[in-house]
Amino acid sequence: MLEHEEERAMKMVLEDGIVKTKKIMEGNQEVNFTIEEYQRFHQCVFDLHSASYRNNSHWLLERFVKSLEESINSVVLPSFVDKHDALLLRELILMWSNYKMMTKWLCKFFESIDRHFVPNICYCSLNDISNNNFHDLVFKEFYVKFQDVAISLINQERMGLHIDCSSLKNVFLLFMEMHKHTGIAYYEGFESVLLEETSNYYCQMAQQWLSLGSPADYVQKVYQCLEQEAERAERYMLSGTPPKLLKVVKQQLVYEILDKLVEKQRPENCGLVTDFYQEMLSKCANMTLQEGSSWTTEEWLSALLTSSLETGVGFLVAAGVHKLFILVPDLAMHRIGGMSTCWETKKDKKANKETAFIKNGSKLLEKLVDICDGKCNSLRSFSATELKKATNNYDPQKILTRDSGYKLYKGFLQGRPVSVKKFKDDMEQYEYCFNDIVYASKMSVHKSFMKLLGCCLEAQIPILVFEYVGDRTLSDFLWGSEEACCQPLLWIPRSKIAVDMANAVAFLHVAFAKPIVFRNIKPLNILLDDNHGAKLSDFSISISIPKGESHVRDSVAGATGLIAPEYLTTGNFNEKQDVFNFGVFLLVLLSGQMVVDFSRPEKEILLQDHVKKCIEDDRFNKVIDSTIIAEGTWPGKEQQLQAYTALSLRCISELAEDRPTMVDVSQELRKIYWSAISCRQQ
Questions:
Q1: One domain, residues 52 and 74
Q2: 618-630: burial string, b at 16+ Cβ within 10 Å, e else
Q3: In the structure, what pLDDT confidence band is assigned to residue 643 with cuts at 50, 70 and 90?
Q4: Do 493 and 437 fall within a single domain?
Q5: pTM surpassing 0.90?
Q6: Could you report the per-residue pLDDT of 134-148, keeping only the tens digit for each?
Q7: Are residues 670 and 563 in the same domain?
């Protein structure tokens, strides 16, 4: 059928507006739209959207998206060719600024579909679509390069070169914008790499400075360096980064070098410290020296340690409760198993509690150094007595969930609910417990992990305290009590749980310099709140991939059916182990069936084999939980279920290289979820 002449004319007018907006992308600063032009283009979209003779809404949305892609492919991507260092970052900021200006006008022109059509289709706005396009086609592809350039520029400034600080700050703000639009913590990932690179840089500098000058020269350099790093961090880094950066610098320049500095000073001055040396140490430690002070070098350096920024882990609690600082070796501290701890206990505490407290503190430091270079977020220390009281002496009625190695109790501390995790008393769980503490402590920035509040080191195996999420796990909703089953999980809540968990696992893979493989994604480890908000827990068997390595080797750990073929046969694995595990989890969530079920035919005991057989025999409905089928159908639901199943099967591909990344999985699940929301509302 021939297009209506009036409709064709309106589309031509709209094309003129789109062509003019592209000139903004090309850097033409003089492009502007008069009120008359704006009204004309806006009216064209409105008329096309509301025309009675043809529904142009889908065409308008496709044209909007296509105009974005055309600008990115023809202007943005070519602009990055042959750009390096600061020039690349400047080009990125310029392109992003032009892109936002262009999309601002496009969104104004297409306002009618943005208000009346797009929310029903995509569960988002045209602005969201614009930002996601820039992310998918530009930012995601070049992120690692942008990150490397930023760190290179920071190192250049450390060496005395002048850099473009404003471009750096704008890039960091862009990282945060992309986080806001996609849920992927890009700035946190950059920050993690920056801290690791900073640690390596100052480790080398410390050795060099110490070998070339006197201790007094060294301390002066440290003081100057700390001032410069503080000023640098405040100029272009985002809030939250400066204290972390200074902590890393002090770790390498002061704490790690302490013994060598004392040894070097001893032959020069066995008694008093020189006035100059005292002055510099005073500045570093931010203390006021008393006239006539006669402290030795060792005493001054110890004071420097205890008065400067905290390092390692500090458990800071209210008066009357233990205070534990786990630090690197210090002459004034007690040596325990090659580690150093400084502890205070009440006089009436029993010796076995003191012994456990010291042993566990030493073990925690060992794990911190091994897994995350001694860095950790602040945690609270709880006493065994208060946790016993909080859980009513670990009342079995208070158990939220349990696994082979632990029980999770609901408790109350200061009137607020918490989750208290108590491990079984054996050596295997002892190792798992510290793994859980260290990894969980790094996850406080992400909403889809159960937040660790602190732990009790007095018990033989530390007891962990987490935020309270809810009374039930996903396992309870799928296979649990009648009360839980009376609140059936429908398709949309299930797809939302899948999105939340995919975001969480993707965060583990991309936000850290050493990617974390979770290895234990299953319904029992996912707690749900009253609105079906999901949080992942239990890092007992998680492991980091060493920096610079593509795989890690470890003994096989994890539940039957969740272990990827390459891991099972060789012991070597990487992030694709989690992708396989997640694919099986998606099938569990879809089907409501157990991973292993001996009531199924012998060749279908594993859920993935059962699903493949059902699809092969054209019995797709047998794969889907009866609850999802019972809620009825609506336009698009069948396609969503098929796309979800296809994605699950890609995740469990035999070959690791055939599996998608968790970032890709997260994005595909988000599209399925939005589609389910919009179709259900129609």
A1: yes
A2: eeeeebbbebbee
A3: very high
A4: no
A5: no
A6: 888 888 888 888 888
A7: yes
